[in-house]
Amino acid sequence: MMVGSTALRAAFARRLSTMYGTEVPAYNTLVDVAQEVNGEVMERMGADAERLGSIGRVTAERHGAIRVGTPAELAQVARIFGSMGMYPVGYYDLREAAGSSVPVVSTAFRPVDEAELAANPFRVFTSMLVTGDRRFFDEDLERRLGEFLGARRLFPPRLLDLADRAEAEGGLDDAAAEEFLTLATRAFELSAEPVSRGWYAELERVSAVAADIGGVSSTHINHLTPRVLDIDALYARMSERGITMIDAIQGPPRWDGPDLLLRQTSFRALAEPRLFREEDGSVVRDDLRVRFGEVEARGIAVTPAGRALYDDLSAELDAMLHGRSVTAEERNELAAKLWEGRVPRSEAELVTGDLAYFTFHVRDARPGAVPPADLTTLLSEGWVSARPIVYEDFLPRSAAGIFQSNLTSDGTKDATRTGADFGPDALAAVLGRPLHDPYELYASVRAASLARVRAELGLDGE
Ligand code: OOG
Ligand code: NI
């Protein structure tokens, strides 16, 4: 039997989850609590709980994060994920994100069409070190990093062959699928190989992320994040279970209006035992804190106008909080107040203000004989209903916060030097495939639903 790309993706997500739960047991607690909370939300809200995805989708839903060192490694990652129907979407420059000094650019590999997202939305936030960025690496360190990274092999050739075959043929037979999944999962396990102390420490002085990526000879999954329907409830419950979360939930505030974009929170990196090779050649046990647990709640995807509003409000909140020290609760309260004055409180207003993405559907009962031609009237007269489109992507600021909150040290960034140019086009060239624009993807889902509405109501050809 042929195992198609969708089944490969779902199976890969499950295997990573099992593997990560073995490596980081607190992840299992997080998944249990998320599922407990999701069950309660389903009971409380019924069908409304599934407006942003079926409970089947949400229960299986995860995102992972990985980090690689070179363009060649990133191109290989693109082949492996491509075979599972995951394509690069969005460009994130974490060298520029507020308050961050992380020398990487990133994209997210994920399914791009509606049916594939509904079947299994597994996505992986993938970052690549920009070793040519002089704010972080001088020429000598860039050269030595290049040598180190050029000599390592993250993915066995057999894994890449199977990935290419799966992508070309739309899947693999059972035996090949099993081999592919085993090799793919293994490639993201934490390696038991000793870490060279001196090299790791040298990179760590520049950036803990640089050390995590370029200080070791393999890659690993950095975190795996389940989706929860009520992140505030989850936050409280994790704290009750004695797991210390970072002090806030990142992203939009909890407020009395529609859930937008993405809210995330995490618990601190765990100290994990690792072997270190000392300068004198001896190998000792020590530990490293690089991996952590994260959970997220997904809301409605916003349009460029909605995003501009969100970014404005975030900047205003920053200005308000500048120089003040407030608790997470106080911060949320201020943010929620700000939102209440400026963000529509209903989905209907988000539609008419073109602030968020929706799909449109003809209702069973028609309110009259002749449908009006424009969407606003179709909605207000009850011909058509609107369903929100879930946000499938990430927020650079939260991502930077997630990186930052889990670093052992701030590292050093020399802001007086100019950074390396590495924009979306450069990233697409490295990936060897198109870099999708998230807005275009949401807009095309909306457009397809509008075309269906027009056809069903006979509004075309007038
Ligand atoms: C990725 C951080 C970004 C998120 O959820 O925003 C991320 C990393 O730590 O490698 O996963
Ligand atoms: Ni994450």
UniProtKB/TrEMBL annotation:
Q: Which UniProt keywords apply?
A: Dioxygenase, Iron, Oxidoreductase
Enzyme Commission number(s) of this protein: 1.13.11.93
Q: Which domain of life is it from?
A: Bacteria
List the SMART domains hit by this protein, alphabetically: DUF1338 (SM01150)
Its required cofactor(s), as named, are:
Fe(2+)
Q: Supply the InterPro entries for this chain.
A: HGLS, YdcJ_bac-like
Would you indicate the residue range of the signal peptide? none
Similarity annotation: Belongs to the 2-oxoadipate dioxygenase/decarboxylase family.
Give the protein's recorded name.
Answer: 2-oxoadipate dioxygenase/decarboxylase
Species of the source? Nonomuraea helvata
